Amino acid sequence: MALPHNVRRGLTTFSGSLFINNKTRDCGAAQIYHPGHEVLSSLPLQMMLFFNVFYFPFWCLCEGIMLALKYGLLPCYYQFLLVAAFLILALAEGLRLYLGYIGNLQGKVPELAGFLLLSFLIQLPLLLFLLMDEHIIRLPLETAVHSIYLVFLASEITAAFFALKVMTRQLATQFYLKQFEDAGRPRQSGHSREEEWDTDLEIEDLKPPHSLCELYETKEPFDPTGKTRYIAACQLYGVVPISYFLRHMKDTELIMKHHGLGPQGAKALSLSLMTNTSIVKLNLSDNWLNGDGAAAVAEMLKENCYISDVDLSDNRLGVKGAEALSGMLLENTTVVTLKLSGNEFNDHAAKYLADALPANNKLESLALSHNMLADTSGELLGMAIAENTGLKELNISWNYFRSQGAAALARGVEANVFLRVLDLSYNGFSNNGAAALGEALKVNNVLEELNISNNRISLEGALRFAVGLKENRTLKSLNMARNPMQSEGCFGILKSIQGNSGAVVEILDFSEIPVNKDFADLCDAVKMLFPNLQIRHGGNATLHKKDQPKQGLGKGSLSDAFLLPWSGSLMYAFPPIPLIGEVLAKVKRDKVQVIMIALA
User: Is the per-residue pLDDT at 394 higher than 50?
Assistant: First the structure.
């Protein structure tokens, strides 16, 4: 038994609008829906339908007996209402169960949508009337059988809703593949274009299906790897298929940097990746995806539950891309690493990202460097960081955070109990920002790595930061390189560590900050307390490690030339290329003349 054309088309429109927000075109020519190459049926729904088939006759028998016993005691209008409700329930239930069986087992969207509508709009209201109305003289047996029936009905409605949602989305990805397979069929003259196509699904914003038929004249076999789907999508979007992707579709890591995908290429790629189960790391950096391409990738990540590492850096995603990715983060539970550097995110984009971070507790690493995030973004992200319970690594370097933004971020770090690594370098938040971070370190007991290099922190800011560092017991790596805090600022930082008996700092980076003898002497004293501490300072960025015993220069002995004083009127050096920088720095420090010979 097939549904009438008008009924089928109406149910198709309802399901398409509710679940995939598209326009469907269902026509007179009969379309046979195969279960497809993937199982779309819902086992829980089918089990409930199976038991419901056996329970419903028992319910009819009990309800009929109860109605006969109390019929004479009811008012005339309740007699009519109860008889009408019983007959409607009994007649509609058979059709409802049939539509549920056919729609679920054969993957027919209109039938399953009809089952859902009958259950929700007819059966459920009538059953609630029989169960809740106080004037129908409910008997104990009647209440019991109605309650069991209500449990069946509510469970079936819930299961059918999710089954229909999965089915429509899955069939949406197969739609153009089906049309591609049918492209070789000859058309019958005299039929309208609408009559030539009979389908339940259509993807929004794609070209009409007849355009695909014009592109393909031969029938191609189904390819379970998704290769055929990708080629068909490329034809639809007018882009050239990328051979690299076709060769690496089964790899666990797909690196497609600098391929010039653009928005259209991203849409074609995303359609194929939506059901891919091999790729777990996806790198699409520097492909000019823009907001539309980001939206396509975001929709793909909502469906794909295998990709866990995503790099979308340098793609000019903008506000639209941030909004799309925010929606993805609210639904996706598999992505743990997300790199969004260099995407022109501003304060408006930060609002969308800040909305998603508190709700997502699966994302562990987020990179937002090289964007245009300013103080307003700092306030938004600061509140989000305070509420987030998943992030372990955050990179927001190379942005526009100044004093106010840095202070807001510091408050977020102070409240966060999960973040381990934070990169705030190249933001220029100056002394007030450094002081706020110092206050955060007094309270925060989880942060292990902090990078605040190139932030215009002077001596004052360094000393204020050192106050908080003196009480911290978890920080292992601190990078304050290239800040104008002079040797005295480095001295203050190192002094605070010396005065902190619970300090666990292992790496201090003061690269390109000139230091004096007082600092060098303090380094030696601190190393007596913390033997594993490594200090990088001065213009040569050399690790200041515990002094090694000097070896003589006698026959057969070895020595590190950089640890010895260079003196004499003229010296010759033959350094390998990697050591040229250190040789020049040593020449500058010891103020000697050297003739250096190096192979080009």
Answer: yes
Asked whether residue 405 falls in the same domain as residue 478, the answer is yes
User: Does 440 fall in a domain?
Assistant: yes
Q: What domain count does the chain have?
A: 4
| Chain centre to alpha carbon of residue 87 | 51
Phi/psi class of residue 39: alpha, beta or left (left: φ > 0; alpha: ψ in -120 to 50)? beta
The pLDDT, as a whole number, for residue 276 is 85
The SS3 assignment for 281 reads strand
Q: Which amino acid is at 305?
A: C
In a domain, 218, yes or no: no
543 and 569 in a single domain? The answer is no
Band of residue 560 on the pLDDT scale cut at 50, 70, 90: low
Work out the pLDDT band at 330, boundaries 50, 70, 90: very high
Three-class SS of residue 379?
helix
Q: Mark residue 190 as left, alpha or beta (left: phi above 0; alpha: psi -120 to 50; beta: remaining).
A: left
Measured in whole angstroms, the distance separating CA 323 from the mean position of its chain's CA atoms is 12
Note whether 358 and 459 are same-domain residues.
no
User: Closest by alpha carbon to 477, among 452, 512, 502, 442?
Assistant: 452
Q: What is the CATH number of the domain that holds 341?
A: 3.80.10.10
Task: Give ∠ CA 394-399-401 in degrees, rounded to 5.
Answer: 90
Between these two residues, 507 and 105, which has the higher pLDDT value?
507
Token pair, residue 529, equals 């307390």
pLDDT in tens, 522-542: 998 998 889 899 999 875 444
pLDDT averaged over every residue in the chain: 81
Range of the domain at 583: 561-596
Instruction: Examine residue 213 and state whether it is found in any structural domain, yes or no.
Output: no
Q: Are 399 and 439 found together in one domain?
A: yes
Whose tokens are 């609210």? That residue is 330
Q: What percentage of residues in the chain have a pLDDT greater than 70?
A: 78
Question: Residue 159 burial by CB count (10 A; 0-12/13-18/19+): exposed, middle or buried?
Answer: buried
Whether 225 is in a domain gets the answer no
Name every residue whose Cβ is closer than 8 Å to that of residue 22 and which is 6 or more positions away in sequence: 16, 172, 201, 202, 203, 204
